[in-house]
Amino acid sequence: MRYKKRTFAEMMQALVKEYRQSGEPWPATRKVMARWMIRNGKWKGGEDAMLNICARDISRALREEFHTDPQGRRVRTKHAAQFPAPGTEDGQQTFWGDIRTEPRPFMVRAFRGRRNQIVGDCIQLNTDVKSFNQNRSPKEPIPMLWDFTDDVLEAEQKVEEKSDEAVASVLERLMPTFPPVEMPIRKPEKASF
């Protein structure tokens, strides 16, 4: 019988499960969990781990690089595009490019990839909200609106006004307003569904 090789994410998820089963505080920050994993010899960094951490940090830094375009807009400078790469683990490779210098086909691929990520996030959020509403809060479901047209237009208008306060007010409005919730630290419990 062949066994499926676990992905890195599955291994990390198993370590988080082990962390919870050990009786450590929950909810927990990722640094608290990482410290526990390292202290207990559950996670050992080697060259591959350091390479992955460095690559992740590079991606984060590139995503945070912005410039002002000729029209005065704040624009992300570096963009990632995935290309087929036979023989690699997932069959593709991600290349970073500069919006000011990359050819149109590269940018089409980069923009499509980002849009697909947004759609994927919305699909997963929709599934999560439906599950929570049905299993945990059927009498008081959390509503979700999936048409972002007005939000984007309003944010764009406020950005054009070049007012940081105006942008902050739009972002504040876009975030659902829930009463403040104190996150209790509790012992692990089994899911009720």
Describe the structure.
The protein has 193 residues and is mostly helical. It folds into 3 domains: 7-45, no CATH class; 57-139, no CATH class; 143-173, no CATH class. Helix content is 50%, strand content 10%. The chain is built from 6 helices and 4 strands; from the N terminus they run H-H-H-E-E-E-E-H-H-H. It has a two-stranded antiparallel sheet with strand order 1-2. A two-stranded antiparallel sheet has the order 3-4. A hairpin with a 5-residue loop joins strand 1 and strand 2 (74-76). The radius of gyration is 21 Å and the shape is extended. The relative contact order is 0.07. The model has no long low-confidence stretch (mean pLDDT 84).
Distance from first to last alpha carbon: 32 Å
Helical residues, percent:
40-55%
Structural class: mainly alpha
Q: What's the rounded overall pLDDT mean?
A: 84
Shape designation: extended
Short description:
The chain is mainly alpha-helical and 193 residues long. The protein has helices at 8-21, 30-39, 47-63, 104-135, 149-160, 164-174, and strands at residues 66-68, 74-76, 78-84, 92-98.
SSE layout and pairings?
Elements: H1 8-21, H2 30-39, H3 47-63, E1 66-68, E2 74-76, E3 78-84, E4 92-98, H4 104-135, H5 149-160, H6 164-174
Helix pairs in contact: 5-6
